[in-house]
Amino acid sequence: LEKFRRGMRVLEELRDQYGIAIPRLRHVAGSENGEKGVYTVVDRIYGENLKEAPAELLEQGHRALDQMFERFARYYSDVYRNGGDYWYEFGLKQIMYGHRKEETADRPYLVDVDPLYQTYDPQNPRQGYGSMARMFRRLAREMVELEGRLPASSRGELAGQRFENARKVLAQFLASVPEDDPNFRTFQDAEE
After folding, report:
1. What pTM value is reported for the model?
2. Is the pLDDT assigned to residue 172 strictly greater than 80?
3. Other beta carbons less than 10 A from residue 25's beta carbon
4. How are the residues of the chain apportioned to helix, strand and coil, as percentages rounded to the nearest 5?
């Protein structure tokens, strides 16, 4: 139960401190095959998963997507500096661009809301499921993947600027990583 609570605090932090949209959550206690557990029930999001979203949708939502990537970059930067529990499943398949039933405007929603987390200790940067460096590399790769799926006409005009604000935050952070960090080379991969 304590792990569940800690995982929920991570999701609440993403929502409340970083402005990452998360569907409303309700938790239900139950059992399956004699195993007791807590199940998460979420509001349905009407929209497209970013992993398969069409180029037109990405074009339409470019500002909101830039803001989402920027917020995740700030979140992971803060975890790197301060340590603590963090959400480690970042990926396009965990995010939808859409809306709840009562909303009219689309925006990115984090829909993988299992309360899973890892703990980062700045004094032991290689511990855990994956280092913070891998999180930054994944964030950068996912950004580049979406930018590459834009319509060709838009790419020509906006190449390299699609997620400009997020790129600035990432570049500032990556420039601050000390060379003696044991994951420095992985951070360099994210920068490229």
Report:
1. 0.86
2. yes
3. 15
4. 50, 20, 35
